[in-house]
Amino acid sequence: MTAFTNDSIERMRSLAGASNDAFNMTTRGYVLATRQEDVASMLAGLPKGIEIDVCSGRDRINESYPVLSNEIVNVIHTHVGGDISGQQLGQLMLQEVRAAGAKRLQGEVLAIDCDSHFGLQVETANGSEAVRADVVVNAAGPFVDRVAAMLELKLPVRNIYQQKIAFEDIHSAIPRNMPFSIDLDRKTLNWSDEERELLAGDEDLAWLAEELPGGTHCRPDGSGKWVKLGWAYNERVSEPQQDLANEPAIDPQFPEIVIRGAAAFIPALEPYVESPPTRFTHYGGYYTMTEENWPLIGPLGPEGFFVVGALSGFGSMSACAAGALCAASICGKPLPDYASALSLERYKDDMLIKELRNSVDKGLL
Q: What's the pTM value of the predicted model, to 2 decimals?
């Protein structure tokens, strides 16, 4: 996974240089903050050769990361990382494939037949259209399993709906040069005694008074004064909906929950707990993932049928390598060493799968 992600980042850097940074790529790295005194086991679990700094002690942390809570006693700063505009990256790729002669047909795939070629029935805004193809890449996101089932194939994936918010930072709580910052620790939210008692007495909300997973994260968003917060604490598997308004996992309380969680390690966000932001967006999407949270990329089923899926919460950073890997598989080009481990072939390696499934940390954000 490290080699795969590093490959993708290098491809993005090349694209950014060639396109005058059309998708706003930053390389400030990731800040991993913890209240744990001993991080030796955490560091031992990091891939060899990864470029990091470890900052320990309040004086050093206050000097280098003054925005973090005084409760934070260790900070691990990984330098290979940052953020991009996924929408702008997608637009750049669409422009390039159009320039290469590709045609885009927007619609819903209703059925796939397979004889000497693939026959796809696609429902578009103008009605049903038949498409013939020698090669099909199933990159249907949360619907990847449904598309596979059209050829009677089963993928080991599940969908979990996660949410984020972005809001205008009128209090300038988050420095514009702050790296993507993650609170690694589990936490209980800072409710008043009265609020905690009310939550504990409500069967549907009692979980909010209990300990919640780590992974609250924050970063500046765009070139203005907006910030983005996320927290992938939802663990409930659900079937993907075309109309996300019908997704039962959408939580109207999420903005308050994630702001409280983020304020626990960035105290400058506390004013938004008492007076929630008035200009904000609350959105979400499905994390499509395998149990071990590794992607599925490569051949699937009949010859000419391929999959790029289960990209969970790392799809943007891995998109370029995922596309390149699938293209190399289609064209019969040499594959990187990580290719088989990211394909369905890995499920033939019982020891690898056992190791992955026994791993405590799935890297989910």
A: 0.91
Q: How distant, in Å, are the alpha carbons of 7, 11, 28, 252, 331 from that of 4? A: 5, 11, 20, 36, 19
Query: Would you say 224 and 279 are in contact if contact means Cβ atoms under 8 Å apart?
Result: no
| Encoded tokens for 216 | 């609250």
Strand order in the sheet with 108-114: 108-114, 118-124, 127-133
Joined together, the tokens standing for residue 114 give 């397979």
Check residue 345 and report its DSSP letter.
G
DSSP state of 178: P
d(CA 304, CA 314): 26
User: Residues near 363 by Cβ (< 8 Å), separated by ≥ 6?
Assistant: 1, 293, 314
Distance CA(330)–CA(139), nearest Å, equals: 14
For 137-170, letters b (16+ CB in 10 Å) and e give bbbbbbbbbebbebbebebebbbbbbbbbbbebe
* Whether the predicted pLDDT of 196 surpasses 70: yes
What residues form DSSP beta bridges with 52? Answer: 78
| Torsion sign (Cα): 242, 248, 253, 255 | negative
Q: Are 58 and 70 in contact (CB under 8 A)?
A: yes
Retrieve residue 69's tokens: 């809570």
Q: Burial, 223: exposed, middle or buried (Cβ in 10 Å; 0-12, 13-18, 19+)?
A: exposed
Burial of 80: CB neighbours in 10 Å, binned 0-12, 13-18, 19+: middle
In 35-139, the DSSP E strands lie at 52-56, 74-78, 108-114, 118-124, 127-133, 136-138
User: What is the Cβ-side half-sphere exposure of residue 274, based on CA atoms within 13 angstroms?
Assistant: 5
In this predicted model, what pLDDT tens digit does every residue of 3-16 receive, in sequence order?
999 999 999 999 99
CA distance 180 to 223: 15
pLDDT recorded at residue 360: 61
Neighbours of 21 (CB within 10 A): 15
